[in-house]
Write a structure and sequence with these properties.
The structure is a homodimer of 346-residue chains.
Chain A (H helix, E strand, L loop, with lengths): L10 H8 L3 H9 L6 H14 L5 H7 L4 E5 L6 H14 L5 E5 L5 H13 L4 E5 L5 H10 L2 E4 L9 E5 L1 H14 L5 E6 L4 H6 L1 H15 L7 E5 L3 H12 L7 E4 L2 H13 L9 E6 L2 H4 L6 E4 L2 H17 L7 E4 L2 E3 L12
Helix pairs in contact in A: 1-2, 1-3, 5-14, 8-10, 11-12
Chain A binds a DNA duplex (16 and 16 nucleotides) through α2 and α4.
Keywords (chains A, B): DNA-binding, Transcription, Transcription regulation
InterPro entries (chains A, B): HTH_LacI, LacI/GalR-like_sensor, Lambda_DNA-bd_dom_sf, Peripla_BP_I
Pfam families (chains A, B): LacI, Peripla_BP_3
DNA sequence: GTGAAAGCGCTAACAT
DNA sequence: ATGTTAGCGCTTTCAC
């Protein structure tokens, strides 16, 4: 139907056109030592004249591919988009190109996707909230420079960037307590695996909630609905909490999407927010700031997390022996219209 | 700090371990002709014993990389996530791995990203709502099998999958007219480029709006605010429309996110929806279905678009000479709570 | 400073 | 049916 494109311009074409060796072209390409300014100019001119573009895959067979792989568990979570913005912004000046591996929920899919990235010889990996076993992550990091985002705990093999989820949960509890609330409930993402209980953000948020409640002398008021970080999970969790004999006056949802489900359940129960019950959550995604919803939520500066992750990754590609670093960012609370003084509820 | 991973297992290791030639291993890998069942078994056993995984980049230097590249203009648009789901679902059974190129708004960034995918020798490309010139798309498609999603017009070089945006706009107008509305305004994404006026969905929706209004004898009521498909664009557009001497009784926003901005502007003007004014939009994203918003919106089966795109792409990889196909899907209208009979507004 | 030549892991002609 | 060999486009010794 259509004539195929002409053969690709290669390093050989450039070398011939510039009357030099392929080695010289390669050196110019990599800004490597051993090329005189005169040669550099000659080669560069030939490159532009021929419209040469290096073949990343072929380069990878010996050197680098200039490709960074980013794995995200879920495309629909807008917070991840912020992280990605930070990564691409930080990498914008460099020669690195970012490619994403989409939607890998579950350990098996995650393993497949990570393997796929390694098989495509990416120069570095950013794993966002991975669920794989720690040993597996260490193994991956030994194979290719890796930064893990959004998972607590340190490793000798990979750098980490996390938000201080315990502090974030405390911000919410402090805020609600200062509004006079005592019966503050939490909707968590159910977790059984022991390592994940220590490392996953959801578990840290639940722990932060507990700790903060205890710090305020409210240990008897601790009340947790254990569902999942989804819209339905929020709906279900809120229904459970609203059915309690002593209904909570405030609900702390572990994520914005959970809060949305909770808001629906509250409305269905004929209650108003924040009149009858306050709702706060975590992530401060675009949903939270949207006017009609206007959710009080913990902000995690995802963009900054992405910037840090990219910086750490490039550093590690440069020096694989450097000791691993753990970056922890402090969250802030954005108070909006879903939380109010408890008096209003009585 | 950490000992590097051992050298990768290659086809040579497998061949030696199975006491056969590398060719034999390659044949087994590709299910190619010329390998006896006995040899096949022997090689396969060696592969699993050694934990062999083919090096995609190296394969690509001669044959395929088994990688499909998907370009999306915007990660935050949830509709694109549906398309991606369809693509990955359809490709789930095959050996192809999907990689995404993130956020490339603007022709220049788009060109860079597409080049990057070609330089990484992807086997096929899915371009979602690209803004590049038609000639450029044709050139890309001559280089690598390509399917274009969400852009009207046919090409001899690439297959297309689109939603019938003209029909979708007509669904909205028909619905509003049936509710008694006559002063139905539209917020469009401003477009000047001639080709894009014919090919981009936003332009098609505006055209569908005009055509439908005319079909209903309402050509004198045609009223368009020309802003952009963003939250702010919706806000601005709605403010313009609300300031008209004869305020519209219904607004058809070109996208859900536009409708959200419009809803805010309507609320700020002290008007209610759908009491004072009806609002309908396009995309039926998760935002539209969210309870408190509950937006009447046109549903484009994004998932099906992804499935079709992936199918067409694999077909084209198999046979590059096949004639190009154009798949057009029919939208449906999902009526929710932001549209009501016009009597209520008077 | 420059270039010839070997090889990265794999596929595809071409023997046998 | 099986193996030998020559590349794919690039980087990297290692001579000069």
């Amino acid at each position: 139907m259509v004539k195929p494109a002409p053969r690709r311009v290669t390093i050989v074409d450039v070398a011939r056109h510039a009357q030099v060796s392929t080695t010289a072209v390669s050196k110019v390409l990599r800004n490597a030592y051993g090329a005189s300014p005169a040669m550099r100019a000659k080669v560069q001119q030939a490159m532009t004249e021929l419209g040469y573009r290096p073949h990343a895959a072929a380069r990878g067979l010996r050197g680098q591919t200039y490709t960074i792989g980013v794995m995200l568990p879920e495309l629909r979570n807008l917070f991840f988009a912020d992280i990605l913005d930070g990564i691409t912004a930080q990498l914008g000046d460099t020669d690195y190109q970012v490619l994403l591996a989409p939607g890998c929920n579950g350990e098996k899919a995650e393993a497949r996707v990570i393997d796929a990235m390694i098989d495509r010889s990416m120069d570095g990996l950013v794993l966002i909230a991975p669920v794989s076993a720690r040993s597996r992550l260490n193994e991956v990091a030994r194979t290719v420079p890796t930064v893990v985002v959004g998972r607590h705990g340190s490793s000798p093999a990979y750098d980490t960037v996390t938000d201080d989820d315990i502090a974030g949960a405390a911000l919410v509890v402090d805020h609600l307590v200062s509004l006079g609330h005592r019966r503050i409930a939490h909707i968590e993402h159910h977790e059984t695996d022991r390592v994940r209980l220590a490392e996953m953000p959801n578990a840290q948020r639940a722990r932060g909630y507990r700790d903060a409640m205890i710090a305020h002398g409210l240990e008897d008021e601790i009340d947790i609905a254990s569902t999942s970080y989804t819209h339905d999970g929020g709906h279900l969790g809120a229904r459970q909490l609203l059915d309690r004999p002593r209904r909570p006056t405030a609900i702390f949802a572990g994520a914005d999407v959970v809060a949305l489900g909770a808001l629906e359940a509250v409305a269905e129960a004929g209650l108003t927010v924040p009149g009858d019950i306050s709702v706060a959550s975590y992530d401060n995604s675009a949903l939270a700031s949207f006017g009609p919803i206007s959710l009080t939520s913990v902000d995690q500066d995802g963009r900054q997390m992405g910037v840090d992750a990219a910086r750490l990754l490039v550093d590690r590609i440069t020096d694989r022996q450097r000791r691993t670093a753990q970056v922890t960012l402090s969250p802030t609370l954005v108070v909006r219209r879903t939380t109010a003084a408890v008096e209003a509820a009585q």
